Amino acid sequence: MVVGDVTTGTELLIIGAGPGGYVAAIRAGQLGIDTTLVEKDAYGGTCLNHGCIPSKALISATDVAHDAREAEAMGIHADPAVDLAGMVDWKDEVVDQLTGGVEQLCKANDVNLVEGRAEFADENTVRVAHSGDGQGSESIEFEHAIVATGSRPVEVPNFEFDGEHVISSRDALALDSVPDSLVVVGAGYIGMELATVFAKLGTDVTVVEMLDDILPPYEDDVSKVVRDRAEDLGIDFFFGEAASDWEESGDGITVRTENEDGDVSEFGAEKVLVAVGRAPVTDTLNLDAVGLETDEDGFLATDDRARTDVESIFAVGDVAGEPMLAHKGMKEGEVAAEIVADEPSALDYQSVPAAVFTDPEIGTVGMTEEEAEEAGFSPVVGKFPMASSGRALTLGDTDGFTRVVADDDAGFILGAQVVAPEASELVAEFGLAIEMGATLEDVAATIHTHPTLGETVMEAVENAQGKAIHTLNR
Amino acid sequence: MVREFELPDVGEGVAEGEIVGWLVEVGDAVEEDQPVAEVETDKAVVEVPSPVNGTVKEIHADAGELVPVGTVIITFAEAGDETGGQDPAETRTDTATETRSEVGAVESKDDGASDDGSGSASNGRVFAAPSARRLARELDVDIGTVDGSGPGGRVSDTDVRAAAESEDSEPVADEPTADDPAPKSAVERVGSDDGTSSEPAVTTGSANRERTLAAPATRRLAEESGVDIDSIPTEEERDGEAFVTPAAVEAFAESQRAAQDADRAALAESGGEERVPYRGVRRTIGEQMARSKATAPHVTHHDEVDVTELVETRSELKAEAEERGIGLSYMPFVMKACVAALRAFPSMNAMLDEEAEEIVEKHYYNIGVATATDAGLMVPVVRNADDRNLLELASEMNELVGKARERSISREEMQGGTFTITNVGAIGGEYATPIINVPEVAILALGAIKEKPRVVDGEIVPRHVMTLSLSIDHRVIDGAVAAQFTNRVMKYLENPQLLLLE
């Protein structure tokens, strides 16, 4: 023990106040558990401060400007001026409001908030080092602990983040001026979202990707819609190129890439945004002290109660494995808190929805047709093109489709892929259908509001039944 | 085409029926409307007709089995179906099984719950709403083992509850049950590794343990099966203590049952006792009697009536009636006497409408005649008895009583009575306390007609005497009215020629 340490006790200690951690803390507080939440940085974690919320704020803001410019077909002629610093200030206000809300909710649920970086001392103790010189540290004894330390952007060799030339997604969301040109390394969802934002702000964007297409986890026809739109925005794609190094050149930098054959290409730009993925933060926890090991990717293995191999320690959110999505972490946080409170809880969701806020958006949930086949179902697919949607036409946004995958025998809905305006919202209905064990018939028989994009859900389902009204049945 | 035939609703409000017997066998050819089974419901035995021309493919219920309405009891292959077809029930079952096993093989990628390796069908995809899944956790039911009754096998809350109550529910020992604190203390953490189990270990292995570990569902099963969980032999242990599974409970309960059956059989062989199912007509009678005694405060008024003249009159008219093909008993005279008395005392021909808080006096006279049958007491009702002469009453009553004894009487023919007469004396005895056939308010029991000494004109002479026992619902009728009514009945029975005026 360090001299000057103060030891306190708590029933439940949560490390990390991101979506997994703060939800666990609030639920535990609701259940009457004495809960302490340790956060080293800012309440809300990556999601609220450096991820979902700021990126979606900027995407919305840039869409306003972009859509206004592109609205000539609707009879609108505008040339909005974009003040990125002002936009970032607005985004910061949104973030502040939300992080402040999280803090208030935690306090209102009697959660003890402690600032600092926590690491395990033993199976029942963490030591929390407070930030800043001379701030000291304290030890907290706990009965149960939840690790919710989240993830951080992965660096590429030779591309250490410097915040100036080589920026992370976090840096990109805090820029105070629009770069003239940007090389984006990685065409995953973070790379594609930010590439789209900056392209809409007028940046000359080049995307280099090691693989042969954007958004690797998605089906070809889904990613094609997004790639086509991105190309329309002027984004250049170079596939099969691995970033190898960079150097300053004149006002900007030159990024070098190498293909499989060893051919080197050079791309000049003002900055390079590296967005090749995220890695769990488990290396700061001194897991040895509790006898926990991570897998080779740094994840902690958990069971369906979010418990690690150590009975008293849970892990939720990004540290608990893929998919690294805030909403998955939130659910895990709830379950962990409920298990601590002896509630009959478990992680038995049937599907985790995912959204990509590109243009157009992608929303997916459950199985693809191929996955359903592999899983032993006899899948039947229904698809409805946005070009046939009255609402999509009135939005002037008709690229994409809504697709449903169901089991042909019993009609159970197994999955959906939506690439469309508001796809992130549309997919929620499919998520509910999957969780409820709803069949095609159930959704088809549900009246959907006209004129909305939601009708495409009904039409896709009817198409799977061979009785769609507003498109030709397959 | 294969046609499944469900037990139809054979009478008003009937929920179940006992298969009395099958009139056909598998392979028999049947014609439409041909009776195939006899089903006994409340008070009637009805014949169930075939809905098709064809052959009997399968019989799904045994004689003596109590079957809920809507259950498939027989499957026919319709005429013209050379192959006989495949039983649709089988087809459905096969499909369901196939689908389920297919699904069972599925490793659900997104299902965190499937990763716990807890085995059984939980590795497969189970279609159920989150609320049903939560309920399953609360009830310690592995939802993967639950048969779903919803479309395509979707598992509902009801299915989960049913599974929890059945022997199929597997224990999920490592999940504490918040809603069941009592058994939890013994169960929680068993098989889990949180190390919080601090209760002292108790010696295990014998079938007379002081302490046994089991999931709440298993304890419930043991309770329902009437066995002591500490007596159930088990070789399984958790944390060094005896652990009982539902299978062990079932096996033990079954062995107990077998032992009891053997005892019972041995006793029966030695002439000790015999158990007869309390079902069908017997049970309906019992329920009706219990309801009547519980709701209507019974008072029984007794008297004796000199029926010497009635015996003579009936004896004279009997031959006449026989010539017309009608058997004439005393009952039609009593019915006529009762109708005349009921007219004079309308509150006796009434019912109490408790909901409306009204006494309903009826201006029609439907007289029930309690009839002993092999199956028990039945009460055929002679309608509008006031409109009929003696022979008509006799004729109709004879027909109805005959039907009741043959058990071919319909429910309708036993409903709507306003007053009941029961002839307890037909077998012997003097007085009785008849139980009112609710919602009627009175019932008259006739004793045997016996020659007894009576004083006539100062001399003791033998006379034919019958006893009367009138039970009344004291909520509606007082003793004085009962006595007056009985007196009026007696007046007609003593002087049967007065019936000519009625």
Structure description:
The complex is a heterodimer of chains A (474) and B (502). With 474 residues, chain A is of the alpha/beta class. Chain A is globular and about 70 Å long. Chain A contains 13 helices and 22 strands. Chain A has helices at residues 19-30, 45-50, 52-69, 84-108, 169-172, 189-200, 220-232, 326-340, 369-374, 390-395, 423-436, 440-444, 455-464, and strands at residues 6-15, 35-39, 111-115, 117-122, 125-129, 137-147, 151-153, 166-167, 181-185, 204-209, 236-239, 242-249, 252-258, 264-269, 271-274, 278-280, 313-315, 354-356, 361-366, 379-385, 401-407, 413-420. In chain B, the strands form 5 sheets. In chain B, strands 11, 14, 15, 16, 17, 18 and 19 form a 7-stranded mixed beta sheet that branches. A 4-stranded antiparallel beta sheet of chain B has the order 1-8-6-3, with no helix packed on it. Chain B has a 4-stranded antiparallel beta sheet with strand order 5-4-2-7, with no helix packed on it. Chains A and B meet through loops of A and helix 1 and helix 2 of B.
Q: What topology emerges from the helices and strands here?
A:
The complex is a heterodimer of chains A (474) and B (502).
Chain A (H helix, E strand, L loop, with lengths): L5 E10 L3 H12 L4 E5 L5 H6 L1 H18 L14 H25 L2 E5 L1 E6 L2 E5 L7 E11 L3 E3 L12 E2 L1 H4 L8 E5 L3 H12 L3 E6 L10 H13 L3 E4 L2 E8 L2 E7 L5 E6 L1 E4 L3 E3 L32 E3 L10 H15 L13 E3 L4 E6 L2 H6 L4 E7 L4 H6 L5 E7 L5 E8 L2 H14 L3 H5 L10 H10 L10
Parallel strand pairs in A: 1-2, 1-6, 2-3, 6-17, 8-15, 9-10, 9-15, 10-11
Antiparallel strand pairs in A: 4-5, 5-6, 7-16, 12-13, 13-14, 18-19, 19-22, 20-21, 21-22
Chain B lengths: L1 E5 L9 E7 L6 E2 L4 E6 L4 E5 L4 E6 L6 E3 L3 E7 L9 H17 L25 H9 L18 H9 L15 H7 L28 H10 L11 E2 L2 E2 L3 H24 L10 H16 L2 E9 L1 H16 L7 H14 L5 E4 L4 E4 L5 E7 L2 E3 L2 E2 L7 H17 L12 E5 L18 E15 L2 E15 L5 H16 L8
Parallel strand pairs in B: 14-17, 17-18
Antiparallel strand pairs in B: 1-8, 2-4, 2-7, 3-6, 4-5, 6-8, 9-10, 11-19, 12-13, 14-15, 14-16, 18-19
Helix pairs in contact in B: 2-3, 5-6, 9-10, 9-11
